[in-house]
Amino acid sequence: MNTKTISYQEGLQDLRNNLGTMLPKEALDVFDKDAVHLQEHHQSILKVQAGDKAPDFSLSNATLKTIKLSDVLKKGKVVLTFYRGSWCPYCNLQLSHYQNSLNEIHDLGAQLVAISPQTPDESLNIKEKNQLNFEVLSDNGNIVARKYTTVFTNADAPLQTMTALGFDFDAHYSDDSRELPVPAVFVIEKDATISFAKSLGGDYRNRVDVSEIINALKK
């Protein structure tokens, strides 16, 4: 299927075209300025690097089952990705992009795990909406995210614009901190050593392409 060979950047161009027709230009400008601001103010994103041991964790999945990293690693490598939430179109695009290559990830001996600060209900929502066949975990308060990537407080301008568009940001989370993780991806070996760690910075429109993950798993 051609969908398996479409890069994130190609999908991003389609998404941008769609957002341009769906959202008022003023609203899209607010979100884009926010992304540029975050890129400028968050440069050193990663808290762990290749060669470090991955911090272990236990988090609830979309059906409230507890998933422990060390248990998943007993089965093979783990591709760990941190995302913002089901309301974020770029997160939906990224996770769908990864889903399209999930068989190849599995064939290379790895499991895919996605983490956000959303509630389990919202994790279930994003799984069903994007037909995701991998674990989507809830990291309330970004406890785990802080060990891997940068966490920041969402600014007033994008939040106010979301509200004006009819999106209830706070309904997706168990707290009112409005904190989000900067998207990042890690490949973790069976012995918990991180072999690949990457973030494209604070600009959440940009995400690690699955081709880089595949290449990392092949090494």
Give unreliable regions as ranges.
none
The CATH class: Alpha Beta
Strand arrangement, largest sheet?
Answer: 5-4-3-8-9
How many angstroms separate the termini? 25 Å
CATH architecture: 3-Layer(aba) Sandwich
> Mean pLDDT, as a whole number?
94
Proportion of residues in helical segments: 25-40%
Write down the domain tally: 1
Tell me the number of strands: 9
What's the number of helices?
Answer: 9
Pfam family, one: AhpC-TSA
Family: Belongs to the peroxiredoxin family. BCP/PrxQ subfamily.
GO molecular function, one term: thioredoxin peroxidase activity
GO biological process, one term: cell redox homeostasis
In short:
By secondary structure, the chain is of the alpha/beta class. 40% of the residues lie in helices and 18% in strands.
Provide structural commentary.
The strands form three sheets. This protein has a five-stranded mixed β-sheet. It has a two-stranded antiparallel sheet with strand order 1-2. It has one domain: Glutaredoxin (3-Layer(aba) Sandwich). Helix 1 runs antiparallel to helix 4 and helix 2 packs antiparallel against helix 8. 40% of the residues lie in helices and 18% in strands. The model has no long low-confidence stretch (mean pLDDT 94). 34% of the residues are buried. It is globular, with a radius of gyration of 17 Å. By secondary structure, the protein is α/β, with parallel strands linked by helices.
Characteristic key phrases:
single chain, about 220 residues, Glutaredoxin, five-stranded mixed β-sheet, two-stranded antiparallel sheet, 9 helices, about 40% helix, about 20% strand, globular
